[in-house]
Amino acid sequence: MPDIEQAAHRLxxxxxxHHADYIEARLEKSRSTYIKYRGKELESIGKTSSxxxxxRALIKGGWGFVSFNSxxxxxxxVALAVKQAxxxxxxxxxxxxxxxxxxxxxxxxxSNPAAISLEKKKLLLDEYNDIIWAVPKIQTxxxxxxxxxxxxxxxSSSGSYIEQERADVTLRLVAVATxxxxxxxxxxxxxxxxxFGKVTGLHQQVEEMSRNxxxxxSAPQVKGKEYSVVLDPVLAGVxxxxxxxxxxxxxxxxxxxRLGEIMTLGREFGSPExxxxxxxxxPGLRGSYRYDDEGVPATKTYLISEGKLVGRLHSRETAAKxxxxxxxxxxxxxxxxxxxVRMTNTFIEPGxxxxxxxxxxxxxxxxxxxxxxxxxxxxxxTFSSGEAYRIRNGKIAEQxxxxxxxxxxxxxxxxxxxxxxxxxxxxxxxxxxxxQMPLPVSNGSPHIRIRHCLVGGG
Length: 458
Fold this sequence. Notes:
The protein is α+β, with helices and mostly antiparallel strands and 458 residues long. It contains 10 helices and 24 strands. The chain has helices at residues 4-15, 74-88, 118-133, 203-215, 233-245, 250-255, 257-262, 316-321, 355-360, 409-414; strands at 22-38, 41-59, 62-68, 102-105, 138-156, 161-179, 182-192, 225-231, 276-279, 300-305, 308-309, 330-331, 340-341, 345-348, 364-377, 380-392, 395-400, 403-408, 416-419, 424-426, 431-433, 436-439, 442-445, 448-457.
């Protein structure tokens, strides 16, 4: 593969010859593997590799951005980005100050996927697919596996030079059961920061997933109304990411006057027990890194502390515009895109309640687990659970069809009146924004209890 380190040193010299308020470049090379099954058939399998980079220039508040998949003609790439910035600029350039960094960050993975043969990966997925199809009434299935190993180099006109390596693994399995015209499905999503071992040994979970899909065919449907609802860490994590996390991304807040009025620092959004965090500093999580794609060190950012809004997520530009500190949340899914404000690992911090405490005083309620999908529009959300169970007189009772949860995120946060002591992080899936997806993230929560939650049948 092309030597991106040599190209980066050439770029550093070229950047010195141009006049701009700021110039940065990012070079990447990566290798990836993909395997997909549709039903019993292997749909696609293979390996890919890529190399390329981008240059971003800032002049009088205007950005120029050029991406490329050839490391030739680097002088022309820089010149074009500078020319674009000159044409776009007409205001004062604003970037929050950060200290230049020179560093090298190696892969942390314990079981790097690049060391595992494609044949071995396929044999594992064959086993999972066979387990799914051994369960009666399964109509179809989907399996999607992917891994990647990436090396990137970031450099800037202010003197930063950062090499980073990272690996990533994802696995998504879905079993679909049918009986007559009735169709039910259950999925399982997993991922890791490059540890292939995290997607092995799932045989029992895959069988339970498949039998659960069949079990839903005979499960009753819940009556739509308000319930006291207990969310498991997976669904609660998706809620905090989708319904609240995106509203904490500063570019969204800065560009939306109405949201800016709602997301006022110091405003009370929940009980004193509620704390919501975004951080890329936790080793081993898919959203973690040492430096973001602007070369800013990762931080731990409290979004809500003791029920009050205390922070938001920033790039250098949004931090300067809003006169706040950069948080190291400027990320790009690949060299083909400029960095934008993105979440990393977003979660509700654990409280003190046991699971028994959360369900113990609920006379009639619901326990909802996992997730299937959902939509958000400003502060309104609708999420579909993957599983649902009746809570009757403080005990988990019969299984129900999956349900939908609907509401206003700010009212719902205030209705959280119980937070468990059992934080768990969901590493499956990826985040999408402005056409950049799937970006590696993780989200999580302990079990949480929400009073007066509007529930509909799935």
